[in-house]
Each structure stands twice: as C-alpha cells, then as structure tokens.
Amino acid sequence: AEKPSVGRDLARVLGVRGAGKHAIEGSGRVITWCIGHLVELEEPAAYEPAWKAWRLDTLPMLPAAFKLRPVPGTRDQLRAVRELLRDRRFNEVVNACDAGREGELIFREILEYLECDKPTKRLWLQSMTAGSIRAGFAALVDGSRYDGLGAAASCRSKSDWLIGMNATRALTRRLKARKEK
Q: What's the pLDDT at 179?
C-alpha cells in the first residue's frame, strides 16, 4: 500500500490480524506499505561530479540513464519492503498503491530499485469501503496491464527532474549574475 493507514485498512477488511511497525502478517498474507515515495531520482552530482557546482557551462544536465536512491528518513521501511520482496514464501506482489499515475510510480520505482522481478497484480480502488476492497481483491489484474500508466509516470518524473534541475540552476545563475553587475 502507499500509506500505513491504507495498509491497516486493507488488513482489517481482509482479516489479516496482527500489528507491526513495517508490515502486518496473517491469514497467508503480508501487507506492507510505503510512506509515500521510498525512493527518488538521484541528485545531479551522482551522475557527473562536475554537476555538483551550479554553473552555466555544465548545463544542460542530461543523464544517460536515471538512477534511484532511498528517500532520507525512509530507510527502515525500505529495508522492510526489501526483505519481504526477497522472501521466498511469496511468488507475487500486489500493487495496492493509490489508483493513478503517482501510485503506479511509487510501486514501480521500488521494484526497480530493489531489482524485484516477481510477477505483480494490481489492486485498483476508487473507494476504501470494505465492499470495494473485497471486490478489488477479487478482481486483481496482471500488473502489466498498467505498463502504459507506469511509463507515463516515469516520463513525467524524469521530465520534471530535467526541467527542474536545469531551469532552476540556469535561472539562479542568471539572476545572480545580474545582481553582481
């Protein structure tokens, strides 16, 4: 799930009893959660040391391939998710992140960062009522059905990085140069 509160709601409706800091386990299921994004795109200096300095002559910054890193403050939860994804008891993963582009991005970036290749199913909910949750789990679909949404989310995230990092640095340097005159 995308958030601990959603994980607890899913557990309650599915009859998964128990409590845990990072997951809830019982009745043959384990439910864990993110805390929003657990991983994010790397900072510019991780791609190229020269990109650490905010200089116009290093722009545009165009990584050959984007890299992910843990979000500061979420390492314990990411570690717990990693251990569950590596657990041999499980042969598939259900994406219960929020229905939409950002939820899809959160889930897929975690799988990518942790190099998880287990098959996925998608839970798509428009409502968090008990009936909707039960119906959603009864109608899980193959995660590949949302590959287009995942690609759109990744494209948006990377384009935000490219525009944000490059434009912010360019404008900052230009404005600073004007003030120095």
A: 80
pLDDT at 175: 87
What pLDDT was estimated at residue 119? 98
Burial of 120 (0-12, 13-18, 19+ CB in 10 A): buried
What is the predicted pLDDT for the residue at 178?
A: 79
Give the chain's residues under pLDDT 70. none
List own/partner pairs for 123-131 with CB under 8 A and 24 or more apart: 123/94, 123/95, 123/96, 124/99, 125/96, 125/99, 126/99, 128/6, 128/9, 130/13
